[in-house]
Amino acid sequence: MFAFFKRVKTVVDSELNSMLDRAEDPVKMLDQFMREMEADIRDAEKAVANQIANEKMLLKKLQDAEKMVNQRESQAIKALESGNEDLARRALEDKNAHVATVNSFRESHIIAKKDADVLRAKLDEMKNEYNEMKLKKDSLKARAESAKTRTKMNRAMSSIGGDEGRKGFERMEEKVMRYEAEAETSDDLRSSSRSLDDELAALDKGNAVDDELAALKKRLGKE
After folding, report:
1. In a domain, 169, yes or no
2. Residue 110 sits in which domain range?
3. pTM, full prediction
4. SS3 for the chain, per residue?
5. Considering only 31-35, 75-79, 211-215, which range has the smallest mean pLDDT?
6. 157 or 77: whose pLDDT is higher?
7. Does 92 score more than 80 pLDDT?
8. How many domains does the chain have?
9. Structure confidence by residue, pLDDT tens digits, 119-150
10. Residue 31 belongs to a domain
11. Does residue 214 lie in a domain region?
């Protein structure tokens, strides 16, 4: 688990950018890194807890053995004071056996405590590296999102100002101009048609006046 952290730290420090270039989704890849690191930290915490428990157990056994050494020595003294040398001898023999146990537990406890201290230090290092990676992850995620947004905007602006869009607008402009020309032609034709009708109507109106004028002259006998 500790090797994984060293590998991730190297990746983030020197190779993450190229890895993100190859990744389909850099944000998801970063989240996956963090989940793996969190799982390793949980495993390390369990290992440290077990080692601390082992250290405490050895310390308890060491203290119990030391207590028996002191107890047997006191009992040997008490037996001698009572005139029971044989009992005092047996108490001292048992004391020596407990002394050997004390020495064994003391050595084991020293090793266990050293291992526990090393594991604690590595766990602290893992957590510090995790926090460092978390800050980098947040920064990289923000950069990735910003890059995606810029890319979308650039693509949108490129589409708006591209040849295809410009040609489309030009086609629509030509259609509008054609519609306007057709409308003007229609207006001209309509104006011409109205002028002819007006002239014909005026001609008809003029003939009617002449007929009416001739009729009046006839009535007045002025023909």
Report:
1. no
2. 2-161
3. 0.54
4. CHHHHHHHHHHHHHHHHHHHHHCCCHHHHHHHHHHHHHHHHHHHHHHHHHHHHHHHHHHHHHHHHHHHHHHHHHHHHHHHHCCCHHHHHHHHHHHHHHHHHHHHHHHHHHHHHHHHHHHHHHHHHHHHHHHHHHHHHHHHHHHHHHHHHHHHHHHHHHHHHCHHHHHHHHHHHHHHHHHHHHHHHHHHHHHHHHHHHHHHHHHHHHHHHHHHHHHHHHHHCCC
5. 211-215
6. 77
7. yes
8. 1
9. 999 999 999 999 988 888 888 888 878 877 88
10. yes
11. no
